[in-house]
Amino acid sequence: MRIGELAKRTAVSERSLRYYEEQGLLESSRTAGGHREYLPSSVDRVIRIQELFAAGLNSSKIADLLPCMRDVDGGPAAHATPLLEQELREQRARLDRAIDDLNRSRDVLDDVIKTATGHNPA
Amino acid sequence: MRIGELAKRTAVSERSLRYYEEQGLLESSRTAGGHREYLPSSVDRVIRIQELFAAGLNSSKIADLLPCMRDVDGGPAAHATPLLEQELREQRARLDRAIDDLNRSRDVLDDVIKTATGHNPA
DNA sequence: GTAGACTCTGACATTAATGTCAGATTCAAG
DNA sequence: CTTGAATCTGACATTAATGTCAGAGTCTAC
Question: Among B109, B12, B122, which Cα is nearest to B56's?
């Protein structure tokens, strides 16, 4: 498929798709005239990339990480370097801290609602 | 305390503290001469803000979330305004959504760690 | 072939969070 | 007071990801 369709299917702008390619996150072949051509598996790949961005990784870490993922491209999954692994764990720890904090707030808020209304905060 | 001390205690730059204030995330009073003066509770507040930034939230989302959390951190408005039950439920829903998003990202990261490192992300 | 839709590259703009710097002002200790 | 440390505002810089636009080239359906 061409870039327009990939953009539509992933809800990611063409600009960003080109940027991902520039950053080594996404591959494409080219038509004789120079237009990008994507495999169907690119849809999943792009969605994966978006998820990792959303999880707080930057493109350089994602680039390091992608070769370690057994994607639909079937290639042998490489192994993360210790440094990358550590960075991933750190990011996960950051998420955990925020989640814990928000959960605590939620519990307190639940109590407030229970106390203030007398019934279940369903 | 003044901004220098708050910066030291939270390991957040003075520049960022002023920015947080500009974004409505942090309050301060002023001395006669215009210098910022912070309550001791600002330390926790700033640490919480940093936590949320580190988890990938932006200042506008944090601004949405903080009012849901000030009940917990004992901020100035904690008991001042008894909120409507509906407002409380809305705040809880906001927290829930944020927690869900972060949990999703955490799961993605967990999955990635498992795949890329081969062993348990403990 | 030709028209209209699509894509290309390259450049410049933008947003968010933060860094840095300059010149002016305030604070606190002697 | 004076002085050195701290702070103020405001401006400009930076990085990452993305937006936008222009001019040129490509693709495809007729």
Answer: B109
